Amino acid sequence: MGEIKVNKGRVYYYKIYNISDSADLERVVSLASNFKGIKRLRFERVGSDVIDIPNPPIQLYIDEYPIKIDDFDGYVTVKLEVNELGTMGIIVEIEFTGEVPISIFKIIQKSYIDDAESAFKIDTYFNNGLNILGPVFKGKYEKVFPILDYSIYYVQSFDHPLKAKEVVTEYGDLPELLHKSYKQLSTQVRNRTLRHAFSYYNDDLVVITNDGAFIYDPDGSDDVIDILDFLNTQLVTIRYYDELLNKRMREINSMLSKRPTNSLTEIFKIREHNDASRKLMALTVEVKSAMDHAQNAIHVTEDVYYARIYMNARQIFGLSSWEESVERKLEIVNNTYDMVQHNLSHAFDNFLELIVILLIFIELFAFFKH
């Protein structure tokens, strides 16, 4: 049997940047005239009762042009995506039609995705977009800048009808594509990859890994693409707050590391302790509020299929692990706050004792003087 061919396919490359605490999407709409077009994320196959994103992200069209991939014609569309969580992403979509060998995915990966900056001038698009959209990003900017990239390989139709199992069987390089491997993977890794395969009907397929996903959907729906996109945005946001906690804790620990040598000098550290206490409380409130916002930015209910994809993708992307990391660090922040409060209390006690001693000394001095 020869190599299977794709009649209609797409490749999506995402590069997602965390910019700030949040973004004003209504202001993004007001700046849309600076771009070629605008689109707000909307799930096509299911309604908001199944997948609810209260404030869906906005995509802005910034470029489009034809491309030659080996002997095949393709078309590139470049978009900016702004999410209310304070992220901005560059999305490059490469579309192709005709009887194209499925190995084109590997060619696109090697020739374009592996060096997306050179192939698509990602940083240029990002900087130009940020120059225009900078005012929409709110909150104090921190020099913590996690970046994530992700690829999705999408087939709407093959040159002949195929069932999901046939796609897995006939496309033997699928695990290697999703793991960006140019060597054959072990049987264990291949089997583990294909365990994360989902089908709603017998002629559609979704396979998800940490590096990329493969989707076969004859209906041409973008719903799974949008779920994965949003989850990656959540991941970048949570990683941002994990790194922010690291950065702020280093600063506070540096402040607290200059411990007084005795109770007397501790009195003069009251201001430093009070400042550290205030910063710790502000940090806790900021991160808890932001984490709640990020975790509640999407709800998947009712539909078992989409819920399975959502929950499995969360697990594969390690979202729960990052959330647990943030929770552990918040616990450390709270413990540090308690320690600082104890030190403050001790310093005040010492200060009061010193005042009492001074008053007694003054009284005695006055008594003996007279």
Automatic annotation (TrEMBL):
Keywords: Membrane, Transmembrane, Transmembrane helix. The chain crosses the membrane at residues 351-368. It comes from the Bacteria. This is DUF155 domain-containing protein. It comes from Mesoaciditoga lauensis.
